[in-house]
Design brief:
This protein has about 325 residues and is of the alpha/beta class. The chain has twelve helices and twelve strands. Strands 8-7-6-9-10-11-12 form a seven-stranded parallel sheet, sandwiched between helices. The radius of gyration is 22 Å and the shape is globular. The two termini are about 30 Å apart.
Length: about 325
């Protein structure tokens, strides 16, 4: 039986899913997290390793002499050195599209918090605000209606398309910027250039993969093009945003608010400047992590390993 080692399984399965179907595929060792000093001890006999954010470069591969297949329990692959895996003829797969409904839901959970202020109104009611109110109804700040607002989407893959569909259900106008507008054309979606995207979006949601070309696409210049009432949402990659420029834009009210599920450094430092702001929502990179999405991810890992063991590897990724 192949020796399979899961190096960092906690974020995939903190205990509410079953590993049993994975255990049927070989001699399994599962660890919540693996510090580098334990990598050799845990992985020296592994034929297959399952990783999420565990870094696997040349140095790490030197400690894993038997590895023939790496299964990434995620879509992102930037934690693997593909030059090093190619030199060893190690195959690498990932899992795709498991989190689409979860991420799209999270986008609107954050957006609705920004525009409706459910958290603030709930706390004010519990603090006696409603009980003291001379009227039957009140609001702490103007509540924005999403109907007829423009939702801009940067990156129109599976998640961007799911976000657009929900936006349309709210009655929003959808504009998008995308590498393949002809291929991914959808009814009711207008593809626009970047300047138009920044200038016209009431809500701008980021869904493109991070590349050398779009790193810090949210920067001082582009933020200054946006409406002062605009809301920025990032559930993509932290590197899409120049954080200092966004901090300044929020502090100076160049834009109205931001909601971020991802940052350039994760976890962030305890003194991150964003913590000072009252017009930003931060969640801990958990937009993808509904129980249903994590089950789909685990199923994908199992299917990728099965395919590899059957001699028909699938979902292979390359540099």
């Amino acid at each position: 039986m192949p020796k399979i080692v899961v190096f960092d399984g906690y974020t995939l399965n903190p205990g509410d899913l079953s590993w049993e179907k994975l255990k049927e595929l070989g001699d399994i060792a599962i660890y919540d997290r693996t510090p580098n000093e334990k990598l050799a001890e845990r992985g020296k006999d592994a034929d297959i390793i399952v990783i999420n954010k565990q870094i696997i470069g040349q140095e790490e591969l030197n400690l894993l002499p038997n590895v023939q297949f790496i299964c990434i329990s995620a879509t992102g692959t930037n934690n693997v050195d593909f030059e090093a895996t190619k030199a060893r003829n190690i195959l690498v797969s990932n899992v795709r599209n498991y989190g689409t409904p979860a991420v799209a839901q999270h986008v609107f959970a954050m957006l609705l918090q920004v525009v409706n202020g459910i958290k603030q109104h709930d706390q004010d009611v519990k603090n006696g605000g409603w009980s003291r109110c001379p009227d039957f109804s009140y609001h702490l700040f103007p509540i924005t209606e999403l109907n007829a607002k423009t939702l801009g989407i940067y990156g129109f893959g599976q998640i961007g398309q799911a976000v657009a569909k929900i936006g349309q259900a709210f009655g929003m106008k959808i504009i998008a910027h995308h590498k393949h507008p002809e291929r991914d054309a959808k009814e009711g979606v207008q593809f626009v250039d970047l300047d138009t995207l920044f200038q016209e979006s009431d809500v701008l949601s980021l869904h493109a993969p991070l590349t050398a070309h779009n790193k810090s696409i949210i920067n001082r210049k582009n933020l200054q093009q946006m409406k002062s009432s605009a809301i920025l949402i990032n559930t993509g990659r932290g590197g899409l945003v120049h954080e200092e420029d966004l901090f300044n834009a929020l502090q100076q009210r160049t834009i109205h608010a931001a909601a971020l599920d991802v940052l350039t450094q994760e976890p962030p430092l305890f003194d991150h400047p964003f913590y000072q702001l009252d017009n930003i929502i931060l969640t801990p990179h958990n937009a993808w992590a509904t129980q249903a999405a994590r089950q789909r991810l685990l199923n994908g890992v199992i299917e990728n390993i099965k395919a590899y063991l059957a001699g028909k590897p699938s979902m292979l990724v390359h540099s």
